[in-house]
Structure formats: C-alpha cells, structure tokens
Specification:
With 98 residues, the protein is mostly beta strands. It is built from no helices and 7 strands.
C-alpha cells in the first residue's frame, strides 16, 4: 500500500488474498467492510495514526489470528459474533477501546 494512503474506503480490499497486512503510518481511517471476506488474512497491524475503524471492517475474515491496534485514538472497534472473529485475538494499546 502506498505510504501516503490516508483512508481505506468501504469494500476496498473485499475478498483480497492478503495473508498479513501492515497499514501505512499516514492512514487515518478504515472504512466499513474494507477487508470483507478476506478469508486468507491472518494478521493486521493498525498504526498509531488511525483515528477511525468503521463497523464490520474485518467482517468474515475467518482466518485472522491477530489484530494489533497501535493507536490510542481509536475509540471503537466493532467485532460482533457474526463477524467470525474471536475478540480475544485483538491487541490494543488503548485499553478503553470499546
């Protein structure tokens, strides 16, 4: 991904075959359903620059084993039971994240 990428739009990487993703340091937001059904995605590193992660950004990423949120500015990361993701694999810097 380009280093100057500021946002990832809704459905941007739907069904991509990524195994691991490290998002660029300039990224501010991840749109809803951005990584929808990326069945091979196992890990994603979200940098400190991210402010917003919209609902269902990682919906049905069933192989995911690790979501690392380095940002203390993210206030919410919605992972519901229908997403196919175990909430215990999410590692966050901001312990007050909902």
């Amino acid at each position: 991904m380009p280093a100057n990428l500021a946002s990832i739009g809704a459905f941007a990487f739907q069904r991509c075959a990524f195994k691991a993703v490290t998002l660029p340091e300039n990224l501010k937001s991840i749109g809803g359903w951005a990584f929808f059904r990326c069945y091979q995605l196992e890990s994603i590193d979200i940098p400190d620059s991210v402010i917003e992660i919209e609902r269902c950004a990682f919906f049905e990423c069933t192989a995911i084993k690790s979501i690392n949120v380095q940002s203390e500015r993210v206030k919410q990361l919605v992972i519901n039971s229908e997403s196919g993701i175990d909430p215990n694999i999410i590692h966050v810097v901001n312990e007050s994240i909902e």
